[in-house]
Amino acid sequence: MPTSVANLDPETLAQLQGLELRARCLVDGYLVGRHRSRYRGQSVEFAEHREYAPGDDLRYVDWKVFGKTDKVYLKQFEAETNLVCYLLVDVSESMIYQSESAALSKLEYAHCLAAALGYIVLRQRDRVSLVTFDENICDLVRASDNPAHLQQLVQVLEQTKPTRKSDLGRTLHEVSQRLERRGVVIVLSDLLGDVDSLLSGLKHLRHQRHEVMLMQLLDPAEIEFHFDRTTRFQGLEALPEVMVEPRSVRQAYLSAMAEFLERIEAGCRSLQIDYQRVRTDEPLDAALHRLLTVKRGG
């Protein structure tokens, strides 16, 4: 793994083999040391034990438990269990879209961001959970702060096979009911769907007092609609193929897209949700930096 990587654009990242390697290069190249938990070491109230993992601080080993069981467990304190990060990753069929100008599909970009965020959260000894979804919840990996947990998250992400449509609003309602405790929820999705349903689901998360951060991932072609000749558009999520003369519909498409994006942005403002729009041709370290340094709305 490179010891120093800067300005990791999607094309460079696409050349790295393996999602875990991409995540580690992304984080090590730009973000290590920039984001530290404000919850560590602030309380002496014991909460629970967890199994030792290589790299853990030996000061927190419970030697009494070791003497009785020959197993190494760490003491965790109340302040150390305060932050739980839930990563919600859209794996619906629309996420596989990738134009010629993008080195990664929206799904690959989301996977890299999710793995990097998981890496960051685990490095700061907080807990991270992963939820993948389309029209339903596909996988739910329970929260853990064990450094080895990253491998499980990566494995789940790499095994996703997008084939179905999305229903983000309904999924967010279900997720709200299943999350074990209050935390930070980061949604990675193109958000292509019904805006009212989406905002209803986000409102449910906020009602549960989660801090919500929304990253809308869009291919540059979806934003700019730069097609200039008759094009066959392949239908995704059960939609049919259509043959279109792009120049005749470009203005109407751009207007509809602008209205769609503004409704999402305005809805997030009203719910005090951090909203970031991300192009899949922009450096991933820039997207991470915006997410982790933005002033919190909630």
What does this structure look like?
The chain has helices at 10-14, 19-30, 63-69, 106-123, 149-158, 168-178, 195-207, 220-224, 246-270, 284-293; strands at residues 46-51, 73-77, 84-90, 127-133, 137-144, 184-189, 211-218, 231-233, 242-244, 274-279. It has 298 residues and is of the alpha/beta class. The protein folds into 2 domains: 46-79, no CATH class; 83-293, von Willebrand factor, type A domain (Rossmann fold, 3-Layer(aba) Sandwich). Strands 5-4-3-6-7-10 form a 6-stranded mixed β-sheet, sandwiched between helices. Strands 1-2 form a two-stranded antiparallel ribbon. Helix 4 links the parallel strand 3 and strand 4. Helix 2 packs across helix 4 (106-123), helix 6 (168-178) runs parallel beside helix 7 and helix 7 runs parallel beside helix 9. The relative contact order is 0.15.
